[in-house]
Design a protein that fits this description.
Layout lengths: L19 E3 L5 E3 L4 E7 L4 E7 L9 E2 L2 E3 L6 H13 L6 E10 L4 E9 L12 E8 L10 H12 L6 E5 H5 L10 H18 L1 E2 L9 E2 L2 E6 L17 E5 L4 H14 L5 E4 L3 H8 L5 E4 L1 H7 L1
Parallel strand pairs: 3-8, 10-13, 10-15, 13-14, 15-16
Antiparallel strand pairs: 1-2, 3-6, 4-5, 4-9, 7-8, 7-12, 11-12
Length: about 300
C-alpha cells in the first residue's frame, strides 16, 4: 500500500516567508512576504480547484493551489512553485493569462490566471489537499469556497475567456525610428522580435490594454515582409505566446488575414500596432474587438 502522509504541516526547515503577516489593527494573513495562487482552466470550461485539508487556514473549503511567497520571490514564481508542490501542475504545461492583485497595504495576494497548454492530471503532492479536481465553471459557486477565492471568483469568472492578442506591423514599427534599419532589415526585425519576445514573457500592465486586473500576457503575432522575413525570434516563450508570420507578398494583406483569424477564433481585444491609415481602416472594419495603436505604444512598452 502507498504511504499515507500524516496530518499537519510538513516538518523540517521552512522559508522565512512561511509566517503570519500582521496589519496595524492586528489582522493577520499568511505569508510574511505576501502570498500567491494559481487559477488554471483547461480551455474546455473547467478550472482546477483544491479541497483544503481541515488543519489549514479555512480548512474544508475549496480554493486554488497557492501559499506564502518565499523571500525575494515574485508572485508568478511563487504561484507556479506552490501549484507544482501542491498539485503537480507542470510549469511547461500552462500559458500565463493575467494576474489579479489584492493589496491590503501590509500584505498582498496575487492570483495568477493561466490556461493549460496541454492536458494534465493534478496530483496530490503534499499534505495540504483533501482532493484536487477539474471543476466545471458553472459548478464552482455550489462549492463551499475559501472566503478569499469566493470574493474574487465573480470577476475572475467574467474574464475566463478574455484573450487579448497583439498583431504587430513590423515594417511600420521598425520604420518609425530612423536608426539605420534600412541597412539591415532582417537585423532590425530580429531586434524587434527580441523585444516582443521579452514582453511575451514578462506581460503587459493591464491599463495599457484597457483591461481590468493587474497584468496581462497577451498573445503576439508579428508580421514580417520583404527582406525582413529573415528576422528571427530568439528565446520566444512558446508558439502560443509569440507567432512570427512571414508575409508571402503584401504585409498589409497578411496583417488583415491574421487579424481576421484572431477575431474568428474569439480573441479580444485584438490590438493592431500600426500607423498606416489604410490598414487601420481595413482592420477596424473586421469588428468591435479590433483596436489600433500606433508604433509609439509598443515602443514605450519595449
Amino acid at each position: 500500500m502507498p504511504d499515507v502522509l500524516p496530518p499537519g504541516p510538513p516538518p523540517g526547515p521552512r522559508d522565512p516567508g512561511d509566517a503570519w503577516a500582521y496589519g496595524p489593527d492586528g489582522t493577520k494573513a499568511w505569508g510574511l512576504f505576501g502570498a500567491a495562487g494559481l487559477l488554471v482552466d483547461d480551455g474546455a470550461g473547467r478550472v482546477l480547484l483544491q479541497h483544503r485539508v481541515e488543519w489549514s487556514h479555512h480548512g474544508g473549503t475549496w480554493g486554488i493551489p497557492g501559499g506564502a511567497r518565499h523571500q525575494h520571490e515574485d508572485a508568478v514564481t511563487g504561484a507556479l512553485r506552490e501549484s507544482a508542490e501542491e498539485a503537480g501542475v507542470p510549469r511547461d504545461g500552462i500559458d500565463l493569462r493575467h494576474t489579479a492583485l489584492l493589496d491590503l497595504g501590509f500584505w498582498t495576494y496575487t492570483t495568477v490566471v493561466a490556461r493549460a497548454a496541454r492536458p494534465f492530471d493534478p496530483v496530490i503532492a503534499d499534505r495540504e489537499s483533501l482532493a484536487l479536481s477539474w471543476v466545471p465553471v458553472e459548478s464552482v459557486d455550489a462549492l463551499p469556497l475559501h472566503p478569499g477565492f469566493g470574493a474574487s471568483w465573480p470577476a475572475l469568472r467574467a474574464a475566463i475567456t478574455v484573450t487579448p492578442h497583439v498583431v504587430v506591423d513590423a515594417a511600420n514599427v521598425v520604420g518609425s525610428v530612423p536608426d539605420g534599419w534600412w541597412r539591415d532589415r532582417a537585423g532590425a526585425a530580429t531586434r524587434l522580435l527580441a523585444g516582443v519576445s521579452a514582453l511575451a514573457a514578462a506581460g503587459v500592465p493591464a491599463a495599457r490594454l484597457d483591461l481590468g486586473f493587474d497584468r496581462w500576457w497577451p498573445r503576439w503575432s508579428v508580421v514580417l515582409e520583404g527582406a525582413a522575413r529573415d528576422g528571427a525570434a530568439p528565446g520566444a516563450p512558446s508558439d502560443a505566446a509569440l507567432a512570427v508570420v512571414r508575409a508571402p507578398a503584401s504585409g498589409d494583406d497578411t496583417i488583415v488575414e491574421v487579424t481576421a483569424a484572431r477575431v474568428a477564433a474569439g480573441d479580444g481585444p485584438v490590438v493592431v500596432v500600426t500607423a498606416d491609415r489604410e490598414l487601420r481602416d481595413r482592420v477596424t472594419a473586421l469588428g468591435d474587438a479590433v483596436e489600433v495603436r500606433g508604433p509609439g505604444w509598443l515602443r514605450e512598452l519595449l
